[in-house]
Each structure stands twice: as C-alpha cells, then as structure tokens.
Amino acid sequence: MAQHQVNYASTAGLPIALTSVDKLVNWGRSNSLWPLTYGLACCAIEMMASGASRYDFDRMGTIFRASPRQADVMILAGTLSKKHSEFARRLYDQMTEPKWVISMGSCANTGGMFNTYATVQGVDRIIPVDIYLPGCAPRPETLQYALMMLQKKIRRESANMNNNTKQNLRLV
C-alpha cells in the first residue's frame, strides 16, 4: 500500500484545500441569492424592511432584483388572487434555473382569512414552494432566517441541473 505524505515546506507552507465541484458551485449559489421583488400585500412592507439598513440583506449577499431574468429566488409576500396568479406563474417561468420560492405570510401560504372564490388558497397550487414563512405579517428576522435555511438547502443540493428540476404545476 502506498504511503502519501504532504510536504508543506515544498508548497511554501500553504495547506492544500480539497473540495468537490458540487460544494464549490453550491457555496457560490448560496452566498449570492438575488430575490425577485414581488410584494402583493402587507407582507411586502416587512420584505422591504428586511432589505433596509437594520436587517441589511446586502451583507448576506442577497440583493433584490426587479427583473425575473436576473433573480433566482422568488419571495411571494401577500395575498395572491386567481386573476393575478397567471402573471405570478409567468414571472416564475421567466426566472433562470436553478430557482427557489419562498411563500411569505399566511395569505400566501393558505389564503389566510380570505376563503373566497377570488383568492388562491396557497401559492403552492401555482408555483412549487421551497420554504413557507408563517405569520401575519412575518417579521423581517423571519425572512432573514428563511434565507439562511434556503442557503443550507442549496448547499445540500446537487449542482447538476438535471437533478434540480421541479414538477410543473398547473394554474387553478
């Protein structure tokens, strides 16, 4: 059996770092999340506060984008009506792969108190959701924690694009 010994003196005293390509790619993806600004109701105020100076998503590498083609995380914050669900799905389809979705607030998660014919009773009927944030309205700290949980999820995924495809859900 061969014995391998690393001689740090020959490499100017620098240690050797070994990692896989998956870990390196997922580290880059998880530390540069760009959410799509998509506020529908009162939860959007909390989402805006999370990008302000007190919670400052910029220090986490999270920069809000206004274009779906530049975003990789969609944060649906608020009540989604059935009339508006077609546009939400269109924006989701325009985002590049890999993409993730955070459903923020009780209205986005389950329709909230609006159990009517015009309200979508859960965003997951339109778009596949990765993380659900409960509350009415969830605090900015909750959104910050959700992004940290999303970062952990991204680091565990395979960097292969074929393994990350999600099922296509139809509009209600």
How does this structure look, described?
With 172 residues, the protein is of the alpha/beta class. 31% of the residues lie in helices and 9% in strands. The chain is built from five helices and four strands; from the N terminus they run H-E-H-E-H-E-H-E-H. It has helices at residues 21-30, 43-50, 82-94, 106-110, 140-156, and strands at 35-36, 73-77, 100-104, 131-133. Strand 3 (100-104), helix 4 and strand 4 (131-133) form a beta-alpha-beta unit. Helix 1 (21-30) packs antiparallel against helix 5 (140-156). The radius of gyration is 20 Å and the shape is elongated.
Question: Which SSEs are present, and which pair or pack?
Answer:
Layout: H1 21-30, E1 35-36, H2 43-50, E2 73-77, H3 82-94, E3 100-104, H4 106-110, E4 131-133, H5 140-156
Parallel strand pairs: 1-2, 2-3, 3-4
Question: Based on CA inertia axes, which overall geometry fits?
Answer: elongated
| SSE series | HEHEHEHEH
Distance between the termini: 63 Å
Major sheet characteristics: 4 strands, parallel
> Strand arrangement, largest sheet?
1-2-3-4
- Proportion in helices: 25-40%
Please work out how many helical segments DSSP would assign: 5
Structural class: alpha/beta
Gist?
The chain is built from five helices and four strands.
